[in-house]
Amino acid sequence: MLAGPYATMMLADLGAEVTKLEPMGGDISRQVGDSYFASLNRGKRSISIDLTTVRGQDQLGELVMDAHALLVNLKPSAIHRLGLTYAALRRWNERIVCVAITGFGLNAGDDPAFDYVIQAATGIAALTGDPSGPPTLPGYSSADNSTGLTAALGLLAQVVSGVGGQVEVSLRDVMLSQLNYHASAYLNDGTVPQRRPFGAHTYYVPAQIFPTADGYLALFITHDGFWRRFAEEAAVDGFATMAERASRREEVLAAVATALAADTATGWESRLRPLGIPAAAVRTLPEALDATPEALVHAGRHRLVGSPIRIAGYEPAYGPPPRLGEHNG
C-alpha cells in the first residue's frame, strides 16, 4: 500500500514516466481516501489490468517491452504466480529490471509484513518510548517509507548498469540495515542497545529531548565545539570532553535540564541556532508545515509535500493522481 507507491512516486517526481498497474477494482489504497492516495501516486498513469487472464498477461508483456523497470509490492506467492519476476519477463525484454518489495524476501514465504509488524519484529519498537513504559511505534510509516527509498535506489542502480535482472528489497532487511551502529555494537562488542528517556542517543551526550519552561527542545551536541558554545550560553560548567560527558551522563543531563528550564523551547532555539548549535523546539506537524511553505506543492487539487530531491535546473511536474484506468489504451 505504501512502500512501492512511494518508491515510484519519487521516480515520477524525478521525471520518470510511471504507469501504475491496478487490479480491475483499483488499488486498495484508493479506499483509504483521496488525500492518502494522492500523497503516494501523484504524477502517475493508471492502467487497470487483470493479470490472471491471458489478455492481461499479454498487456503486461507489451508494457514490459518498452519499459526500463517493473517494481512490484505484493506477497511473494502473488509475484511468482502473476509472472512479475525477471525470470518470467525477460522473454519480453532482456534489459528489464524487476524490483520486488516484500516483507522478508522473494523466496521467504507469505507471512504478513506491514510496517508496524516489521518495526516490532526488528527491534525498532523495543528501542522506542520511555524505558518505564511499553515499547512504542513511531507516529508514521518509517519501515514502508525507508523501504520505498531503498527500492528506488536499487532500481536506478540496476538500470544504470545496463543489465536487466532481479532486485529484491525486503522491509525486514531495510530496517535491520538502518539499525547499523546498534547492530554493530551488539555483533562486535556484545552491547545490547538500551531504550533511554527522552530518546537519548547511545553515544552522544547531551543528545535528546529536554523539557523547558514551555515546551520541549531537541538538543544534539556531537562534539566539544558545540558543547563549549552551548555551555557558555547556558552557563553550565565542566564536562569539557566528549569522553567525560559520556562517562558522567546523568550529571550532564541534570545540569543541562536545570539550565534549559530557565527559558522556553522557542527561546532556546532562537538563542542557540545563531551559535551553530543543533537545536529545535518540538513542533506539531501543522506547525512544521506552516513554517515551511517552500516544501509544499500542488498536484491537481491536492496540496502535498513535494520531492525532497533538488536538482539544479530541474523542476518536477507535479501532476494529479490518476483516475482508475485513466490511461487504458
From TrEMBL:
Entry keywords, A to Z: Transferase
InterPro entries: CoA-transferase_III_domain, CoA-Trfase_fam_III, CoA-Trfase_III_dom3_sf, CoA-Trfase_III_dom_1_sf
Pfam families reported for this sequence: CoA_transf_3 (PF02515)
UniProt cross-references to SUPFAM superfamilies, sorted A to Z: CoA-transferase family III (CaiB/BaiF)
Molecular-function annotations in GO: CoA-transferase activity
Signal peptide from the UniProt entry: none
PANTHER family: SUCCINATE--HYDROXYMETHYLGLUTARATE COA-TRANSFERASE
Name of the protein in its database record: CoA transferase
